[in-house]
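Students often ask what a holo structure prediction actually looks like on paper. The answer is less mysterious than it sounds. You provide the chain, you provide the ligand, and the output is a string of discrete structure tokens encoding the 3D arrangement of the protein together with glutathione.
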Amino acid sequence: MIDLYYWPTPNGWKISIMLEECALAYKLVPVNIGTGEQFKAEFLAISPNNRMPAIVDHDPPGGGAPVAVFESGAILQYLAEKTGRFMPADLRGKYEVLQWLNWQMGGLGPMAGQATHFNVYAPQFTPAEHVAYGQTRYTNEVNRLFGVLDRRLADRAFVAGDYSIADMAIWPWVLPYKNFRQTLEDFPNLRRWFSITMGQRPAVRKGKEAGAELRRSQTIRSEDERRILFGQTASTVR
Ligand SMILES: N[C@@H](CCC(=O)N[C@@H](CS)C(=O)NCC(=O)O)C(=O)O
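The corresponding structure tokens follow.
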């Protein structure tokens, strides 16, 4: 059994999708990031960066003590190695997948996260003129990254060889494209991959629905929630 420390957001969906694809038994352990559950000592022992997702595998390959993993890219790689699925074993195929996984982890995820911050969250509590620069900067960067992905998908069905953990990492970060002020009509290859190749896979749909009832709105509902999510400094985590 795998415990998935989880909140229904794009980084969480990557892992619920992979677990569904592999038909692995898992238990959702909700981490309500709006109320500060990511700072609980039990969670920090598993995920010292106070971010979800994280997993604890109680049945790790080779046996022994449970294995805890944080960072969604590392979790996907762990599950791929555990199951022998969705990442090739040969050197070339493996690094084809890993470079696109890391493209998502270091590029699309952080840039799209900031685009969401400036386009969706910051306007709820910040004057428009203070958010305009960030909106333009991150919206343009996501636009560039969508362009890279569209070109990549022009002559192939999946991002890196066969269907892989790279596709599973990227898809949840295309899903909220409206928050990034993008339109998929501008990216026909990406749109085909997003809505048909990926969007029609039962495990992708099921993974996206995992724990959907936990989080109903994208609104920052209280001053406390704003401080918890957007007021973090080193003193919060020392
Ligand atoms: N690089 C991390 C990012 C994870 C991340 O940013 N998670 C967010 C939700 S999508 C979170 O836990 N936020 C809690 C917080 O901001 O305190 C990963 O891919 O696992």
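The longest strand covers residues 2-6.
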